[in-house]
Amino acid sequence: MKRSLTVLDPGPLTTVQDCGRPGWAHLGVPRSGALDRPAASLANRLVGNPDSAAVLETTLGGVTVRTSTAMTLAVTGAECPVTVDGRPAPLGEPLALGSGQTLLVGPATRGLRSYVAAAGGVQVAEVLGSRSTDTLSGMGPDPVSAGAVLPIGDPLHAPHGVDVSVVRRPPDPVTLRVVPGPRTDWFIDEAMTTLTGSTYTCSADSNRVGLRLHGPRLVRERSEELPSEGLVLGAVQVPASGEPLVFLNDHPTTGGYPVIGVVRPEDLAVCAQLRPGDRVRFAAARGAG
Amino acid sequence: MSRVRIIRVGLEAVLVEVTDTAEATALYAEARRRAVEAVDIVPAAQTVLFSGVPDVDALVASLAGWSLDAPSSEDGPVVEVPTRYDGPDLEAVARLWEMTTAEVVRTHTGTEMVVAFCGFAPGFAYCTGLPERLSVPRLDTPRTRVPVGAVGLAGSFTGVYPTASPGGWQLLGRTDLTLWDPSRPEPATLSPGTRVRFVEVGR
User: Fold this and answer.
1) Are B162 and B123 in contact (CB under 8 A)?
2) Domain parsing of chain B, residue ranges
3) How far is C-alpha A93 from the geometric centre of its chain's CA atoms?
4) Average pLDDT score over chain B
5) Is the peptide bond before A258 cis (omega within 30 degrees of 0)?
6) What is the pLDDT of residues B84-116, one digit of tens each?
7) CATH code of the region A174-284
8) Interface of A with B in 207-236 (CB under 8 A)
9) Which of A207, A153, A194, A179 is closest to A18 using CA atoms?
10) CA angle, residues A278, A283, A287, in degrees to nearest 5
11) 3-state class (DSSP) for residue B32
């Protein structure tokens, strides 16, 4: 029998994600890929997958899947209850499921996104070298739906034993280090101080495109329209509302609002785990030179 | 290189700002010619972004020696876009351009264009070539659905919708050419730097 996972309940939003499709931005293709890269990588390591294998990324509500055959799964990321056929199972450890068993990843109790890896990886069709769902452009597979049968590859390696079971609890408030630029000079001098001296809260409008924030507005010095320009992952853009947002993996490739700074790459994983109402601070970081 | 501003973006990206779209197109062509090491090189209206650059300092140092004055390589093939000029905004554009619809078609098909950049949607190309005086505004109220292959104007750009989507461009007509196919090695028919000519076909 072919290895597969049948989705019994996709939760509010569950997508297939891998390392995404960087390198196509000049054609307007977002990079996509797992938002909490370290958690996705850990899930893959636990089941013996290469880092590039596709996993499931849940959003707040978890996911329920049933195995076609015996296979090893692992759940990482947000803290949440996990059960196998109703019996509690650990986060951050390889779970050996038998044929026809049900893995339930419950609603996140801390953090937002859980990752489910299966030994062999989720083998939906690749689009431009990636199996990731891009929620902005619609590229890649559709979000996972109830009844979907996800093909799973053959395992490459034996599952790893647990080295360190990492459940990272984001501090409260989270501090994101931000490198000023490229358009800091489009804001009044005090804007950077406002950004780094205030506490922002995550908006419920946040998604895979960006972490939207509520808090003190950043006031522009220059009011003219900025010609659209290329955007990087982690860009802190200030739209017309004046409230900043941090662009995550499904961000558009170009944008016409000024970017006041860029969040350091190591600090983006925590952005994936912030829930509406969570508190965020920014700290000015030095650039490369 | 004169007239340019080099701005660092985060830890591993550089935004190079020039004065107009023609220069951005030339800068992008030069970046491709030099095979700059970067994960993404993204041209836009007045900038080129280099992101995922392994050695930002070396790139910044090298940029000083680039020339934008040499004509960008014009040896590439011209992609012809067979177009039926029967779009809902053809007459409105004719009024804006103060000419007949036949003259609009002649002007549009008689202009050799080049793709300056892509954006808005995968494979959506912003083609330049029309003079600034023929700029047209976007629709006040964007259409909720523009069909695949619609050929439209916004500002002095010409664009072709690679997939059906909402949109505010003034539509001149429609092409059956496949603009976007991610199963091809080169998924976009119109990628930055591509020369383009619109060709009228029967209605």
Assistant:
1) yes
2) 5-63, 78-200
3) 20
4) 93
5) no
6) 999 999 999 999 999 999 999 999 999 999 999
7) 2.40.100.10
8) 227-232, 234-235
9) A153
10) 135
11) helix
Distance CA B38, CA B161 (A): 28
pLDDT for position A163: 61
- Out of 3.40.980.10, 3.30.1360.40, 3.40.50.300, 3.50.50.60, select the CATH number for domain B5-63: 3.30.1360.40
In chain B, where do the E strands start and end? 5-9, 13-17, 40-43, 47-51, 78-84, 113-118, 125-128, 143-146, 150-154, 157-160, 165-167, 170-175, 195-200
Which chain B residues are within 8 Å of A228, Cβ to Cβ? Answer: 44-45, 119
Q: Read off the pLDDT of residues B183-197 as tens digits, 9 standing for 90 and up.
A: 999 999 999 999 999
Three-state SS at B184: coil
Tell me the C-alpha to C-alpha distance, in Å, between residue A289 and each of A23, A32, A89, A177. Answer: 25, 28, 47, 16
B59 within 8 A of B65, measured Cβ to Cβ:
no
Q: Do B182 and A128 touch (CB under 8 A)?
A: yes
Closest chain A residue to B49, measured at CA = A230
| Domain regions of chain A by residue span | 4-151, 174-284
CATH architecture of B78-200: Beta Barrel (2.40)
Pick B170 or B2 by higher pLDDT: B170
Using the predicted structure, report yes or no on whether residue A289 has a pLDDT greater than 50: no
- Asked if A60 is an interface residue toward chain B (Cβ–Cβ < 8 A), one would say no
What residues of B are in contact with residue A135 (Cβ under 8 Å)? Answer: none
Share of chain B above pLDDT 90, in %: 89
